[in-house]
Design brief:
The chain is mostly helical. About 75% of the residues lie in helices and about 0% in strands. The radius of gyration is 23 Å and the shape is elongated.
Length: about 100
């Protein structure tokens, strides 16, 4: 007696499903990135008596790391871009 097996074929995803999955992963990555930056800065703030000094040191570290652009840092921390740029320019002066 022959047993007929169904071929297991992978369901082909439609372009809409692919786009939806890409959006899901992009949102998840973005949320993790924002959470990391906020948590990192909050940790530095708690470690210093002067919260502004801790925040400044955390921002300097994020800029030195180079993984994050200035606009992203400013947006996540809800600071003006000019303040982030000023911190970066002060870093360049102190290093030279």
């Amino acid at each position: 007696m022959k047993v007929f097996r169904k071929k297991c074929t992978k369901m082909k995803k439609s372009p809409a499903m692919i786009k939806q999955e890409e959006n899901y992963w992009a949102e998840l990555y973005s949320a993790k990135l924002i959470g990391f930056i906020e948590g990192f800065v909050e940790g530095f703030k708690e470690g210093y008596k002067d919260n502004k000094e801790g925040e400044k040191l955390a921002i300097e570290w994020l800029i030195k790391d180079g993984s994050y652009n200035l606009n992203l840092i400013a947006c996540v921390l809800e600071l003006p871009s000019s303040e982030i740029a000023a911190i970066k320019s002060n870093m360049n002066v102190s290093v030279s």
